């Protein structure tokens, strides 16, 4: 993947609902109308009562997850906030940065559609959400996309092309090294007492995370047996539910996908 996924949640209590969202009908595409990068956006939401927030900010350097993805966000009207996950694109200053952001955003939305088992009918612009459910009269990101010769339909088509490849969810995502280390550590702490065969599966999964984060792969013990891979996939599934860090979840998904691919288990 072009951009790493990082997590740094908004800390200002006034900008957090702290309520779980129980339904996700749509992924909403926004644009910030500002050249500030994702970290500056995060800083803005950490330093005052903004009465708003968003789940993810994507600039030309990273995909920054700023809210637990299942928390109720405040990025569209009160009605649609209850069943949407929002992504803000920071405004790129040139075509090269826009291209990096576009590719990263296509990969992120592909990943989220795969997680929800949905197609691109799940993706709406803020403009489209406003027309459908009211609440705001914003028209983003139409104007921003037009600056670079793109439309929201172009974006959906790009995601559809990725979905058609039918790759494993998260396979194209780049893991943040810190998230890979955290995921490996959690997994290892649960598997210290494992037998030799299972250790091959743990080792295989850990190395998949290292590869995804572009950190040095450790000694490879071999390809796991199918039943061992299945056991470790179950453990990874449990660990996935135990963390609310999106970047660590991506690492767990990459690990499980690698085990399934290596042993022919279905995704
Ligand atoms: Zn918006």
Q: How can the largest sheet be summarized?
A: 7 strands, mixed
Termini Cα gap: 20 Å
CATH architecture of the largest domain: 3-Layer(aba) Sandwich
Mean pLDDT: 92
Determine and state the CATH class of the largest domain: Alpha Beta
Assigned CATH superfamily of the largest domain: Peptidoglycan recognition protein-like
Annotation field: number of helices: 10
Percent range for helical residues? 40-55%
The total beta strand count reads 7
Low-pLDDT stretches: none
Kindly report the spatial arrangement of strands forming the biggest sheet.
Answer: 6-2-5-3-4-1-7
The gyration radius over C-alpha positions equals 19 Å
Ligand names = zinc ion
Overall description:
The chain is α/β, with parallel strands linked by helices. It has 2 domains: 4-164, Lysozyme-like (3-Layer(aba) Sandwich); 175-263, no CATH class. It contains 10 helices and 7 strands. It has helices at 38-46, 78-81, 95-116, 126-133, 142-147, 152-164, 177-191, 196-212, 226-242, 246-263, and strands spanning 4-7, 26-31, 56-58, 63-65, 84-89, 123-125, 174-175. It has a 7-stranded mixed beta sheet with strand order 6-2-5-3-4-1-7, sandwiched between helices. It is globular. The model has no long low-confidence stretch (mean pLDDT 92). Zinc ion is lined by residues 30, 126, 138, 140. Zinc ion binds at residues 30, 126, 138, 140.
């Amino acid at each position: 993947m072009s951009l790493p996924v990082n997590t740094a949640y908004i800390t200002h209590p006034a900008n957090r609902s702290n309520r779980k969202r129980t339904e996700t009908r749509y992924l909403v595409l926004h644009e910030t109308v500002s050249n500030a990068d994702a970290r500056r956006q995060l800083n803005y939401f950490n330093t005052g009562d903004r009465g708003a927030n968003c789940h993810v900010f994507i600039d030309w350097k990273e995909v920054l997850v700023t809210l637990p993805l299942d928390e109720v966000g405040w990025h569209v009207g009160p009605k649609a906030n209850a069943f949407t996950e929002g992504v803000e694109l920071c405004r790129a200053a040139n075509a090269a940065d826009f291209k990096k952001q576009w590719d990263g955003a296509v990969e992120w939305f592909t990943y989220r559609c795969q997680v929800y088992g949905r197609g691109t009918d799940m993706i709406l612009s803020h403009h489209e959400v406003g027309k459908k459910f009211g609440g705001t009269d914003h028209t983003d990101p139409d104007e921003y996309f037009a600056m670079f010769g793109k439309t929201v339909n172009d974006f959906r088509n790009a995601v559809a092309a990725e979905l058609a490849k039918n790759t494993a969810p998260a396979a194209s995502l780049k893991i943040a090294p810190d998230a890979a280390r955290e995921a490996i550590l959690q997994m290892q702490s649960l598997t210290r007492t494992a037998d030799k065969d299972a250790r091959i599966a743990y080792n295989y999964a850990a190395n998949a995370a290292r590869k995804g984060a572009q950190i040095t792969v450790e000694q490879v013990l071999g390809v796991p047996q199918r039943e061992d891979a299945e056991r470790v996939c179950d453990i990874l599934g449990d660990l996935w539910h135990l963390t609310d860090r999106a970047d660590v979840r991506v690492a767990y998904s990459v690990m499980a996908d690698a085990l399934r691919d290596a042993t022919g288990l279905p995704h």
